[in-house]
Amino acid sequence: MKILHFLILFFTFLLITAQAQDFKNNNDPIHVKGKSQVRVENNMTPDQAREKAEELAIINAIQEAFGTYVEQEADITLQNGTISYNIIGGTKVKGEWLKTDNEPVFKDEIEEQQNGKKDKEKITWKTCNIEGLARRITPKAKLNASTLRCTMLDCETTSFMDGQNFYLYFKSPVDGYLSVFIDEDGETARRLFPYLNQGNESAVKITGDKPYFLFANTNKLNQFDVRADEIELFTYKALEYNSIYVIFSPIPYCKPILSDASLLPSGYTLPKAISTKKFQEWLGDCRVAMPDFQSQRIKISIAKN
Questions:
Q1: Distance between CA 285 and CA 253 in Å, rounded?
Q2: What is the pTM of this model?
Q3: What is the pLDDT of residues 224-257, one digit of tens each?
Q4: Domain boundaries, the chain
């Protein structure tokens, strides 16, 4: 009986060890590949077509590696304000994209379709092949972030005019560290938060369940010990598309190397900056190293009056 009892304990130990190892492996980053094909519509710019094709290729890679997402209430919201899915291009998936290897490969394919008895229509398809690191999604804090044209939630928008003020609303269910960047047309990423007067901080400690309105200086809304940087958006183009990155982690993280802020002849100050390529590399490295690290992207447009 003692031998039988020992064998039961031994095999139980092996089973628990194997399950723990399998769980660990399931959360390790893996190399994945994806591909997509997007029809280029007349109202799409080349950059928009590339971006859409890249998003769909990433979704394809994650779905191939971790399966498709089935929307069930039990799978969506977990305890303590966390969620167990990721949203890419409006699609819920079971994994998260960590970083891209090299550059995605894009190609245009032209197809002719019969349009009536004699006329033929040329259709352009944008294809994308992508490789990178991904990981099965783990429960993360469900963040609330929205871009605003005034300091009220009713002012939520992603469409701004040249010279218009910009504000950001943020709320997290847990304490953590927050920073905000703006990617200007895929060329330069500028750090908007922490504020310039907060020195060389990588991120600012925020309190869970507490609403924050960033870039506002009224006594009621500025919840930090320094004067807020007031943000005014501008563009030299008829229409420009930028991306706001809201970056959060329950644990501290280090910022990337940034250039100094610069004062323009007009009196405006350009925030500290980094190239978009290096910014994306930094985001990827942080995602790989910290499973709870999040970067929520909000696309905005700026139009000339």
A1: 11
A2: 0.83
A3: 889 999 999 999 999 999 999 999 999 999 999 9
A4: 30-136, 143-303
